[in-house]
Design a protein that fits this description.
Layout lengths: L3 H6 L10 E4 L2 E4 L7 H4 L3 E5 L6 H7 L11 E15 L11 E18 L1 H10 L6 E13 L3 E11 L3 E4 L2 E2 L7 E2 L8 H12 L5 H10 L1 H10 L4 E2 L7 E3 L1
Helix pairs in contact: 6-7
């Protein structure tokens, strides 16, 4: 098992170059043609902009719920226009600063769309701290181009209730996620962890800071609260319908 400190630094984990399918026996890359309408009909289209685009992270979420993968999860590569993948202003239970979306006119972010059954979506809600760290929302009026499948003008997403972490008054994008026309300076996970340490506990050792955030829920909560003064809203309230 990976060291918790190294695991925290590894966010958003391993994201493949192409679309993939996750089943009970693991995951594999797929061709766009495999996700035709007969496969994904009656499923929920949920944008994955952070670690939910990692098949290994998705597998972890369903490891004790294998029956939910009797029907595999399909994840298709997509481009989301006028948005960027940025850091949320909170710490995850495994020590990372996780992702959210921010309105970024002119940008085009690489994301995935996960196509989830009702049961898979219910389990996903359980892993996303709905009502605490994230809201499950439907975005309308968006431009989302799915490779091999055309376009969507609306989809669901998990949006941070804590807002977007900022540096110098601007959101901080994930360096690990490619975005064309990016307007803000990105950071890697290791860089953003060190940045938040400098804001909250500048005299702490970097690895000790991460380890404490993993092992102490109370300290993690305090640190998240401390980030509130460095948070901005996502910036597209008129496009959101909360469900």
């Amino acid at each position: 098992m990976k060291c918790p400190i190294e695991h925290a630094k590894s966010y958003p984990f391993d994201i493949p170059d192409g679309s993939f399918v996750l089943g009970k026996d693991g995951w594999r890359e797929i061709r766009a043609a495999e996700t035709d309408e007969t496969v994904i009909e009656n499923r929920h289209a949920v944008i994955a902009s952070g670690s939910n685009a990692s098949p290994t992270r998705l597998a972890d979420k369903y490891v004790d719920h294998g029956h939910l993968l009797d029907d595999p999860i399909y994840a298709t590569r997509a481009i989301m226009f006028d948005f960027d993948t940025v850091y949320s202003a909170h710490f995850s239970r495994y020590g990372s600063i996780p992702a959210t979306l921010a309105h970024a006119p002119g940008a085009a972010a690489d994301v995935f769309v996960t196509w989830l059954t009702d049961g898979q979506l219910e389990r996903m809600h359980e892993t996303e701290s709905i009502g605490i760290n994230y809201d499950f929302t439907q975005l309308f009026g968006i431009e989302l181009t799915i490779r091999g499948k055309g376009h969507l003008d609306n989809a669901h997403a998990y949006l941070s209730r804590k807002g977007c972490l900022t540096k110098d008054g601007a959101p901080v994008p994930l360096a690990e996620i490619n975005t064309e026309g990016r307007r803000w300076a990105p950071m890697s996970q290791e860089q953003v962890l060190d940045y938040t340490r400098s804001l909250i506990d500048p005299h702490a050792d970097s690895d000790t800071f991460i380890k404490t955030g993993v092992t102490s829920p109370a300290r993690r909560k305090q640190r998240t609260q401390a980030l509130e003064q460095y948070a901005l809203p996502h910036g597209w309230h008129s496009l959101i319908f909360k469900s």
